[in-house]
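User: If you would, consider this record:
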Amino acid sequence: MKNNEPEILPIRIYGDKILRQKAEPIDKMTPEVKEFLEDLTYTMYETDGVGLAAPQVGVSKRIFVVDAFWFKEGGKKDPVIFINPEFTEFEGVAEAEEGCLSLPDIYEKVTRAAKVRIRGLNPDGEMVSYEAEGLFARALQHEFDHLDGVLFVDKINKLKKIMIKKKLKDLASTTSKNGVNIGKQMHHTHKEL
C-alpha cells in the first residue's frame, strides 16, 4: 500500500486507442494493483461517475469499479470493485439513457439486459458474485463493455449515431499522434498546474 493520498487519473476520451482494446486479465494481486484500485475508485468519485473501468484511465486490465447509487444516497460511498469479472446470467430487456466519462456531453438510450448475475474477484482476491437489476445492472454491463473495447455508442441505432457523428468527431480530434486522448479540458487542467 502506498503512503500517499489516492490520485486522480486522467480520463481517456473517445478516439483514444486504449478504449478499443480488449483488456488483459489480472493474474496476480500485487501492491501495485491495490494502489491502482484506490486511484481508480477515487477518480470515479472525483469525476462524478457511477462506474469507471481501467481502460478509461489508460490501463488495459480487466478491472472496474461501480457505485451506482452514491450520488442519490447523499454521497454515501459503497464502491464495488470487480477484477476479471464475467457475467453468468442475463434476464429481460430494459432501455435507459446512458452517458460515459469517456464520451463527455453525449447521452443516448441503450438497450441492455434488465437483470444480470456477475462474478469476479474482489480487492482481497476472493471470488464474489452479485445479482443486479436497474441502474446497478446497467452500470455493470456498461463498465464490462469497456473491458472488451466496446462503448455505449456502439449499441445505439444507426440513425442516432449519424446524429452524434460530429460530436464524436470533435472528441476524437483531440487524440494525439500516439493514440492518447485525455481531451481538451484535461489538457487545460494540466497547463494550469
The two ends are 26 Å apart (CA to CA).
